From TrEMBL:
UniProt KW DNA-binding keyword: yes
Positions of the HTH araC/xylS-type domain: 10-108
Domain of life where this protein originates: Bacteria
Name under which the protein is recorded: Helix-turn-helix transcriptional regulator
GO molecular function annotations of the record: DNA-binding transcription factor activity; sequence-specific DNA binding
SMART domains linked to this entry: HTH_ARAC
Keyword annotations from UniProtKB, A to Z: DNA-binding, Transcription, Transcription regulation
Length: 134
């Protein structure tokens, strides 16, 4: 039988899922679930194999990636939208997690506009008339 109280740990995760856009701290989360910050960190790591801070960073960077791919927001606006107050901290964490800077991620995630090569046999088979130059 485990001595870890799973319900407060799930509530902590739920709280972070719904408030990751705000600059929350471990004290905020621990106050919300009525556990000490140290006990919360240990218990959260035991249950989810990562600290609350690691979970929050992962959640924020995942949302930032989504916004970089699918929005026209500036990187500074995305930084604020996912709960960071400092562009430098956001960029450093993004690079650490994603391996590239936010601007490089945005450039690399854009779809390429160059048409793909369609072999002549496929064009003939499917009746495609506007074939690219061969």
């Amino acid at each position: 039988m485990s001595l870890i109280p799973h319900k407060p740990i799930r509530l902590a995760r739920h709280y972070m899922d719904h408030n990751y856009t705000a600059p929350i701290t471990i004290e905020d989360v621990s106050r919300e679930v009525a556990l000490s910050p140290y006990y919360l960190i240990r218990s959260f790591r035991h249950v989810y194999r990562q600290t609350p801070h690691q979970y929050l960073v992962e959640k924020r960077i995942a949302r930032a990636k989504e916004l970089l791919r699918n929005s026209e927001l500036s990187i500074t606006e995305i930084c604020v939208a996912v709960g960071y107050e400092s562009l430098g901290s956001f960029s450093t964490l993004f690079r650490k997690v994603a391996g590239i800077s936010p601007s490089s991620y945005r450039i690399n995630s854009q779809p390429t506009l160059t048409p793909g090569y369609i072999p002549l046999c496929v064009c003939l088979l499917h009746g495609l008339e506007n074939q690219p130059e061969l």
